[in-house]
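Dear support,

We are seeing what looks like truncated structure output for some complexes. This example has two components. We would appreciate it if you could run it in full and send us the complete token output so we can diff it against ours.
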Amino acid sequence: MARAFTPKVVTANDLLEGDVIYLTAAGGWTRVLEEAELIVDEAEAQLRLLEAQSQPQVAVGAYLADAQAGETGPEPTHFREAFRRTGPSNYRHGKQEAAANV
Amino acid sequence: MYKYNDFDHAFLAERNRQFRAQVERRIDGALTEDEFKPLRLMNGLYLQLHAYMLRVAIPYGTLNPDQMRALALLAEKWDKGYGHFTTRQNIQYNWPKLKDVPDMLDALAEVNLHAIQTSGNTIRNVTADHFAGAAADEIEDPRPIAELIRQWSTDHPEFQFMGRKFKIAVSGAANDRAVLKAHDLAVKIVRNDAGELGYQVLVGGGLGRTPMIGKVLNDFVAADDLLPYIESVISVWNQYGRRDNKYKARIKITVHEMGLEKIRELTDARFEQVRPTFGGADQALFQDIKRHFAAPEFRSGGTEAFDAAYDSDPVFRAWADTNLAAHKAPGHAIVTISIKKHGATPGDATAAQMREMADIAEEFAYGELRISHEQNVILPHVHKNDLPAIHARLKAADLATANIGLISDIIACPGMDYCALATARSIPVAQEIATRFEDLKMEHDVGHLQIKISGCINACGHHHVGHIGILGLDRAGVENYQITLGGDATETAAIGTRTGPGFAYDEIVPAVERIVETYLEQRESAEEEFLQTYRRVGMEPFKAALYPAADKKVA
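Here is the complete output from our reference environment:
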């Protein structure tokens, strides 16, 4: 039996900055996972991934990452995506640095 | 050290101009990512977890002060104020922006540095013994060979799109400090019974998912045959190496599957064809390169200032005892500057620290610096009387950690904090082990013990050859760390043996502590090092300490 589909977000790296970006429901990109579109339908996920891959001037290496619904939006289910959401653990660089500067 | 000539300058300028145009074409949409990726990789530019990463080659680990200052400039101007020295004598910048990379490469070119062939399926940056040209146990400085290979392999049309990458290391000393036996090909300078200099060539070493110890392909290659011989080896592998499966593409697998004898036979046959095509230009070039590596005029004079500081200052003495190595010239020493302060990221130096090391090298150390595969910085030539002044300067720059060869002098790859390939973190594990043993004040009592940590099976952190090796994996969505014991990165190279099941992230430091406690209980004397004890008593006592419940079940 095929494995049950788990919710996904479309994520990639930004072409110019190299940082982590997520596809929003409006078809744009955000740097904040909570603002990403949580896709619960498998066919829809494939379509959204194709849309992302058709934007090579913005997104590099787009893929579907597992996520789950949280109180404020999608949350990572795997530690790799958790690190991509925040940044490295040895310095407060990356997204956690941007958050600290707000 | 080697100084670029007009050809080198023009070559690099042209290469950088090409890459600048490629970046522009990628940004304006003329190149797709699939087209651009191999081009950026050939110029050392990766896309990692959080950002691009630029890997800059430090050929055979040798730098002059101006080059070190250029590395500092890149860190400050285009990165976040630091750089990461790697296990292949490169430096990596973790946060460059795509548009800035051509400017970074131009700044590097001003001091004869580049990022060419630091990635891709090419002949990579040739690494060397970090004490080359200085070590007391050396037959001859191996760096001219490394420079010759660098020039020959750079943009070599036959070797730009091979089945997989190819890593070469060179050494001229009896003691192997360059992990020769973990390289695709290694050259060791030797003397034959007639007293002539020549080269022992090893092949088929490598770490990664299938670790192999390199084997001697040829015991003695005559001096003027070396380059055609290397070309023959790589040419044979390039033809017969597997391209159907990237995990079986490295020469270690070719040697393993075809057998060393067959590889030797094919190499000898190829050599017959290749040798006549080398008309002697390589030897003329080699002689010219050698002149660039002439040792400095070493000062004479006593070591009173060193002796006085050694006798009166315990902090200086502790540092001198761990961080100095024997130099070939009287009154001199080799200084290893630890980039492994307890709790800091192994191999990370700030721009200010790089500049201070450059200044110290200029003022006291004949203008020479080296980067070791152990992620430390070396001052290869220092008169001992200058050591107290150097130590004071290093202390002020937070660079005087006295831990070379000790448990906190850990090799660690960037792991999942940066690397897109990683399956677990390695940096925080290294930080916590170092901090823990610093708190326990145990490390000087424990003595020589190398911990090497990789955040995935590719083994950039050399875990297979660590006395204690740690491999971070993803086990069902959770970080899990396997431990190996008994690895050895020297001339007596050995692959470590797995202790058993892995440990969770919060169990790995206590597990290492139990291993060290077991060693202290088992060793016959304070002189018996960890590896010697392990070889004498074997895995069992360590297993019993690591898995007490399992032990009881068996009993």
